[in-house]
Amino acid sequence: MEHLVEHMRISYHSVHEPLCGICKKHCRYFESLREHLTGQLPKPECKDIFTIRGCRFCLAILDSPNARRVHQERCQFSSVNSGLLGRLANLGIHDNLTIGDGGTRGTQVVALACKMVGGGSDGSLDLCARVCIIDEYENIIFHTYVKPTIPVTNYRYETTGIRPEYLRDAMPIKLVQKKIQDFLCNGEPMWKLRPRGGIGRILVGHGLDHDLDRLQIEYPAGMMRDTAKYPPLMKTSKFSNSLKYLTQTYLGYDIQTGIQDPYEDCVATMKLYMRMRSQVHNIEDYPLASDPQNRYNFASWRQNELERMTPEQMLEISRSDYYCWCLDSRA
Ligand SMILES: [Zn+2]
Ligand SMILES: [Zn+2]
Ligand SMILES: [Zn+2]
Considering every ligand atom, which ligand is closest to the CA of 15? Predict the structure, then answer.
């Protein structure tokens, strides 16, 4: 009991964590839950049930093998659409961004992705050469080639498909930067942006810090939803999963085969975001361990009082130490 109390004080278990649908074990990462159900050393009871009626994409447990079949068909996406739309996106005509249309429809969510070419003497310096932004229905709202300010020394053609002539008259990065920055803030000064009830847009992406750094755009962390930094989607607390892996494993289709279009990455991150956001969780008034109301949840109890609690009671006062994206759905 003493150990359990110690564990609960520091583990921030909450309703927002990935949970085994059979034994109710809490996991910090979906990857650990996947291990628990289908890994090298799964828990046998859970594995047996999962094999019969578990969804191999979202890891949910359904009521029957038939319900699983129906569910899994909806849970798996195919890449056909993104291939087709990606080719349309290649036409590169979406280079205008409008601001000021978000006020009445609540906070808008957009996804951004870039493709980089190489600069510097060895071509290892990432320079943004293409950028795409989509809305939450996967419509392209911005898609353009970008002209870097320093010479490109490696076009990385095998993955980018970019030739020198595509960038020669492309939009200058300064202009791209300003358009995107204004679009994201949507007419609000940056210091006033807030994730709920504001008009600034929620920005979804994979490795956004790097993309924004290369675009020289600043945006508040509270407005970003990064699939490379979201604890449930990470491999460990230090290592991210690649977007390619996440898409294949959690959405059930392949991306980044051959020449890559940033539109495809936008769609994959948006789908991952939507899946995370649509999780059905109990929503408390003060969901985060960092909310002032929760600061003393464990500290205010004496050790022996905690030791008399059931695990369920302790779980009741435990809160998440990260912002669960399901909370966006009530914004
Ligand atoms: Zn949640
Ligand atoms: Zn289990
Ligand atoms: Zn599923």
Answer: 1
